UniProtKB/TrEMBL annotation:
Oxidoreductase keyword on record: no
SUPFAM superfamilies: DNA breaking-rejoining enzymes, lambda integrase-like, N-terminal domain
Protein name according to UniProt: Tyrosine recombinase XerC
Family named by the database record: Belongs to the 'phage' integrase family. XerD subfamily. Belongs to the 'phage' integrase family. XerC subfamily.
Entry's localization field: Cytoplasm
Highest rank taxon of the organism: Bacteria
Active-site positions on this chain: R146, H242, R245, H268, Y277 (o-(3'-phospho-dna)-tyrosine intermediate)
A single GO molecular function term of this UniProt record: DNA binding
Lineage: Bacteria, Bacillati, Bacillota, Bacilli, Bacillales
Length: 297
C-alpha cells in the first residue's frame, strides 16, 4: 500500500498542483492510517471498510487530538480513497457519507502590546540569525500575513522603500499589504547585513528568509524559532506561529481600524472569518494601517 500512497502523492503533485505543505500533510496522515490498518491485517485496497476508518478516527479523538486534526485526517483519507476509486483499485469508496467532527470554537490567543514588544526585542541583532529572526517577527506582526506566506516570500516581494509586500494567500490569490517603518527597517537591515552571510555561494536561492544551509526557511523552522523567543521573552501563553497574526488584527481593531480593511490585509475571502476579532469602523487600507497599527510609524 505504501507504493500506492506514493502514486497518490505523485498524482496530487502533478495533476492537482497541491502545495508542498499540503502534500506533506496528506502523506503523513495517510501513511499513519495505513500503518494502523496493516496492524489489523488490512493490506490491500479492496480490504478496506468504513468501520476500520471510523475506528481509526475514533482512536484519534480518544487520544485527545483536536477536532481540526481529526478533520484534516478525514480529508486526507477521503482523498486517498477517491484516488483509489478513480484508478479502479477499489469498487466502492468506504469514506462516502463520513461526517466531519464539529470543531470546538476557541478564541484566538492575543498578545498584549507589552508581550509583543518583548517578543520582537528577543532576537540578538548582533548576529546574522538574530537579524533574520528580528525581520521575520517584525514583518509578521506588521503585515498579519500567514506563516506559510511569510516563508514563501522571495527577496523581490518586499519593497522596503515603498513599504509594501506582495504575497500569495490561500488559493494562490496574490495581494499587496502595507508595512510599517520599523518592519521595513528590520528587513532592510537583514538584507544589507545578514542574508548574504546565510546564502551559499553555490546556491541561486530566491527566498527572502534563509536557513543555516542557505535554503528557504520552513514553517517548522519558524515554529521552533518563535517558541524559543517566546520562552526568552517570558510569555506564558501557548504561543503559535499564528499568534502574531491574531494579535495584528486585534490590535488594529482595538485602535479603531475598520473590519473590511483588516479583512483585506489578512486576505480573508469571507468577512465573517475576520469578525472573530470584532469592531467595525471606516477608512482606506493604507491610511487605516498607518493610523492604527502600533508599529506603523
Amino acid at each position: 500500500m505504501k507504493s500506492t500512497l506514493q502514486d497518490f502523492l505523485q498524482y496530487l503533485s502533478s495533476e492537482k498542483n497541491v502545495s508542498p505543505s499540503t502534500l506533506e500533510s496528506y502523506g503523513r496522515d495517510v501513511s499513519q492510517f495505513l500503518d494502523f490498518a496493516a496492524g489489523r491485517g488490512v493490506e490491500t485496497p479492496d480490504e478496506f471498510r468504513k468501520p476500520l476508518i471510523t475506528l481509526y478516527l475514533g482512536g484519534l479523538k480518544a487520544a485527545g487530538r483536536a477536532a481540526a486534526t481529526i478533520n484534516r485526517n478525514t480529508v486526507s483519507i477521503r482523498a486517498f480513497f477517491h484516488y483509489l476509486l478513480k484508478e479502479r483499485l477499489i469498487g466502492a469508496d468506504p469514506t462516502l457519507e463520513m461526517e466531519a467532527v464539529k470543531p470546538e470554537k476557541k478564541p484566538p490567543v492575543i498578545l498584549s502590546l507589552d508581550e509583543v514588544e518583548r517578543l520582537l526585542a528577543a532576537p540578538d541583532v548582533s548576529t546574522a540569525h538574530g537579524l533574520r529572526d528580528k525581520a521575520m517577527l517584525e514583518l509578521l506582526y506588521a503585515t498579519g500575513i500567514r506563516v506559510s506566506e511569510l516563508v514563501m516570500l522571495d527577496a523581490g516581494d518586499v519593497q522596503t522603500a515603498l513599504r509594501f509586500a506582495r504575497c500569495s494567500g490561500s488559493g494562490g490569490k496574490e495581494r499587496v499589504v502595507p508595512i510599517g517603518v520599523i518592519a521595513s527597517e528590520s528587513v532592510e537591515a537583514y538584507l544589507k547585513s545578514s542574508r548574504d552571510k546565510l546564502l551559499r555561494e553555490d546556491k541561486d536561492e530566491p527566498a527572502l528568509f534563509l536557513n543555516s544551509l542557505g535554503g528557504r526557511l520552513t514553517r517548522q523552522g519558524f515554529w521552533k524559532m518563535i517558541k524559543k523567543y517566546a520562552k526568552e521573552a517570558n510569555i506564558r501563553q501557548d504561543i503559535t506561529p499564528h499568534t502574531l497574526r491574531h494579535s495584528f488584527a486585534a490590535h488594529l481593531l482595538e485602535g479603531g481600524a475598520d473590519l473590511r480593511s483588516v479583512q483585506q490585509m489578512l486576505g480573508h475571502a469571507d468577512i465573517s472569518t475576520t469578525q472573530m476579532y470584532s469592531g467595525i469602523a471606516r477608512g482606506n487600507m493604507k491610511e487605516v494601517y498607518e493610523r492604527h497599527h502600533p508599529r506603523a510609524r
